[in-house]
User: Fold this.
Amino acid sequence: MLLLAGATASAPPAPAAEPAMPPLVVTIAAPRDITQWTAAGSGSRIEAADIARTRPTHASELFARVPGVWISRGDGQESLIAIRSPVLTGAGACGAFQILEDGIPIRPAGFCNVNQLFEVDFAQAAAVEVARGPASSQYGANALHGAINVVSPKPGLQPWTLGLEAGADDTVTGHLSTGSAHWRLDARGSDTHGFRDATPTGEQKLGIGHATTVGRWQVQSRLAASNLNQETAGYILGKDAYRDAGLRRDNLNPEAYRDAASARIHSAWRTAVDTDTALSITPYARWSRMQFLQHYLPGQPTEENGQRSAGLLLDLHHRLAGGGDWRGGLAFEYAQGFVTETQARPLTTGSAFLQATRPAGVHYDFEVSSRLAALWQSLDLPLDAAGDWRLLPSVRVEYLDYDYDNHALTGNTRDDGTPCGFGGCLHNRPADREDRFTNVAGRLGLRYGDLARGQWHAAWSSGFRPPQATELYRLQRGQDTADLDSERLQGVEVGYRRAWADLQIGVTAFGMKKTHFIFTDAQGFNVSDGRTRHFGLETEAAWRPASRHTLSLAASLARHRYAFDRAVGGGETIEHGDEIDTAPPFMATARWLYRPRRDLTLELEGIRMGPYYLNAANTARYDGHTLLNLRADWAASSRTLLFARITNLTGRDYAERADFAFGNHRYFPGQPRRLFIGIEWTP
Assistant:
């Protein structure tokens, strides 16, 4: 159901104790829990029941429930994220959103992957939380436009649950969940031929949780792993190509693929220091590796990247006299990552310039070690005796150090040291170096009232995103050093929420400005002197007009504009005031949930994507689309659940994402009408 920001009390209620585990005198929520953010900010929480009803095969299907959020679907499991922002591509795109699992970033700062949502198991999560707006004061580096937190299921007396779903394009998905007082197992696998030619995809995800007590410590641990093997299709070309039934299924790059795997483990140790203070210590470790063909580049080089990282979170929660709260903590992290790019064969097509400047062999081969340290604290202070007025300030200081080690020849030669024609090879490998970034983020929030009487909030907040390793060290000729600053985003918002017996509603207005926006200029250099502006209105509501009916709405109206003039890569020119491309001004999702009987649930969902520009010059445009989805669950017995869903119920021709580049309209075509049926069984 709907989560209205600020729906919890200023001090979140203590979580229920696990079976066979004695409760502590004082317990604390995770320091990045959404309840703390929404005390004076905008956030949403998708509960397990809604996740189970949606049964998402891709993140885009689930996050349509959240206002101001668009997970743009590529091919297979590829995606790009927008949270109060355009869909960002190219330099400056990766790392603008913090992705967490149980409050822990799934990747180290500086080693982002724009597709990293496929590493988390949102389809079997206990909840998925979204913080909207600059949130680095709570979530750290990369929470520039917001954060997504996937909450894992906890151990408990969970019977065996087996599920199987089959549907269009020979898609088969199976899942298994079971648990005891101290253990929890969740496994999921999916295989599909894909609706486009030669696009089979298989993925597997595993989560194992454990809960116990060690003396006075309450311990929650979890291991998560994922694997993806995908044959990839790129854009189809030509104006309105997505309307052509033949072109929609075409795969112009049947040789393209993506193989990715990841693993993460953490252990949260919590204890009561005294009756007013609780301590949490969480060590964690992560690993990921990915290989894919860059089919969208001349020469189609293969990239391989990966990272190993470990860290420690220390969090302290103290209840102040007079009903206030203080929270503070430290974070430490060390990571090692690598990137290689190799072109297998000489380029024999295209211009003489392309053939000469994109040689076969190694283009990039480097490692980067990073060290991160952060200090943060937040307060929740009542300003009057009744506690109606509350002040909510927070601040975070974060230090990030990169140590770059080039394993290939320095400069823009071939990998054997011979020069390329036309003034040198396109790729440039800088010499070994170190880079350091220190960032400060803050938030000042004010809240008045409660949900029953109406609650107002106002907040100023800031976010930061340090340059990512690939932006600093994966350069083109002519740029030996990328002198980049951290991107910064400042925002203000004002919101109102209220809950009646059968109606909940929340409305928020926001404005933001971004500085040091990183992009690729007309010379192919990575630079950080761009500026953008963002304004909008979001609403989230749920109404229960009768006992069997629930109507829900998530909608946003926003404008995202450039605030500078510059010639950029791809032959485009940005002018101050132009709308940023791939930034729909209007997005909305409406749902009707109907329970005609206790054992039957129906949900009709309508999704509206408004028109948007496809290029920085605002000369090409996509007209938008409206989709309908229908879902049904029938509890055939106490142990058997039958379900079905139809996506794109009306068979609408649409584009998941539209683009204009190199003189072509380009589209990821939307999927046609598709039927899925399945069963869940509890032995």
